[in-house]
């Protein structure tokens, strides 16, 4: 049975840009009431005015701030039906060029931020017998040089959701994970603009791992997943095959293939580019905020 979003309260993290902002617009167009959570207050305020939404400036690694964001949403709307744990960042470069704080920050936002978000909102979602959508990534079941912390965090997010699903099922709460490939957002555009090595790798990756998907297509898939309370959402759908073949994708054979198309020269180029940039995150990223 379709889970009608009319009148439902959606609590969306990472809502200032990209997937989160577009999801908020489309959900509001379907009659949902939306709470926008993120770090860029001015963007959140503008979007809130456009959608008559609630907004709260908040770092998802700050539990007290998240608890306050949840409380203010409940004060405004009376509860929370759906949580979309979407906030995410990606540091630039390999483990060798660090800095380690950027690697740790990526894990803190992408994994710990999801855990904190869900923990803060779960009592209200449980009361509503609602839905939790956690945005993971194709990086949960594939590997690429320069994405160690990102891949680790997204794999952790998937397993967190898998266990949460088992824990909440008897209480009427459904849990889904979304696995997008490269989505045409500021995060991906920043990496593509900053790193020629990334552009080269993207061209050489096999289908469907080389696909760049419009954000509108991604959001439509996420909303369909929420409305059907789906366990898994793949963007594009062909990624389901990649996950099914995960033992092959992460095998020694796959390592050899990736090393052959990239190898040391690509890694060296990436590290040189990141050193020259002098920063660990994309131009529009808020990853370097404490």
Describe the structure.
By secondary structure, the protein is α/β, with parallel strands linked by helices. 53% of the residues lie in helices and 13% in strands. The chain has twelve helices and nine strands. The strands form two sheets. It has a seven-stranded parallel β-sheet with strand order 3-2-1-4-5-6-9, sandwiched between helices. A two-stranded parallel ribbon has the order 7-8. 47% of the residues are buried. Belongs to the short-chain dehydrogenases/reductases (SDR) family. GO terms for molecular function: oxidoreductase activity.
Uncertain segments are none
Question: How many separate structural domains?
Answer: 1
Shape: globular
- Category by helix and strand content: alpha/beta
Largest sheet: 7 strands, parallel
Helices and strands, in order, run as EHEHEHEHEHEEHHEHEHHHH
CATH topology: Rossmann fold
CATH class: Alpha Beta
The CATH homologous superfamily is named NAD(P)-binding Rossmann-like Domain
Task: Tell me the fraction of residues in β-strands, as a range.
Answer: 5-15%
The N- to C-terminal Cα distance equals 43 Å
As a whole number of angstroms, the C-alpha radius of gyration is 18 Å
How many strands in all? 9
Name the helicity range.
40-55%
Keywords: Oxidoreductase
Organism: Micromonospora violae
InterPro entries: KR_dom (IPR057326), NAD(P)-bd_dom_sf (IPR036291), Sc_DH/Rdtase_CS (IPR020904), SDR_fam (IPR002347)
Pfam families: adh_short
Summarize the structure.
The protein has helices spanning 18-29, 41-51, 63-77, 100-127, 148-168, 186-194, 196-204, 215-227, 239-244, 246-249, 252-261, 263-277; strands at 9-13, 33-38, 54-57, 82-85, 131-135, 174-180, 182-183, 212-213, 232-235. It is an alpha/beta fold and 290 residues long.
